[in-house]
């Protein structure tokens, strides 16, 4: 029973080694010690374990299998780093090839899948619709492998949305938009307080014409994260499209007020910088247009 359990764990790790390396080494070491204890004689003077021949093959097999798993994980990381170097130099095709190799060696590591999707999406030499479809296939595969990563779902939703922009058939376009909304909802079930996911979800509702549902999602963000300025801007855009110009101007001005409050602060965290990432000049122009419209 113990042998079958250990072999099952190792076979599982052939497909998903993510975060398993240390438990594998610990468990396997204990198991080998157990095998030797059962099968060997202990020389009390020097405490040397002498395994019987009947257990030798099994011990060697499991040692080789464990060694392969550790080596496979290392090779995956090696090609992942090569891909990162290619990506920094703008060598997107080489980066994709190396990321694909990393995924081959360690398919359970979603970080490798995300890097592959990124290298495909940013390869400007390939037509955008082709990039979108290829990246979406990789995102769907990564989603099947890892069922608890919200970012994979959000990426999949963004790709479905991008694909909808190229779809001329109205039915197919709506299906892509619905899939994008579904993917973002799945991401928010896992990470309900992520303002970026909820902002995207609100935007997708707006693109389907459901302004009220989009407004509802954006208001949730403002309630949780009042300094998340992209949400205020999208909310202002929704009010403007609904003809509620006073509310739109109010949201725009509130965003500018918060922007001015923190613009001279030394924000080292990229997360904080993204919270304030709006174009003040464009917002001021929108305010001017709406105020003139009211007159």
What does this structure look like?
With 295 residues, this protein is mostly helical. The protein has 14 helices and two strands. The protein has a two-stranded antiparallel ribbon with strand order 1-2. It is elongated, with a radius of gyration of 27 Å. The termini are far apart.
Question: How large is the share of residues in beta strands?
Answer: under 5%
Distance between the termini: 82 Å
Biggest β-sheet strands, sense, barrel? 2 strands, antiparallel
Structural class: mainly alpha
Low-pLDDT runs of 5+ residues are 42-50
Q: Which range best describes the helical content: under 10%, 10-25%, 25-40%, 40-55%, 55-70% or over 70%?
A: over 70%
Strand tally: 2
Order of strands across the main sheet: 1-2
The number of helical elements comes to 14
Strand/helix succession: HHEEHHHHHHHHHHHH
| Rg over C-alpha atoms, rounded to the nearest angstrom | 27 Å
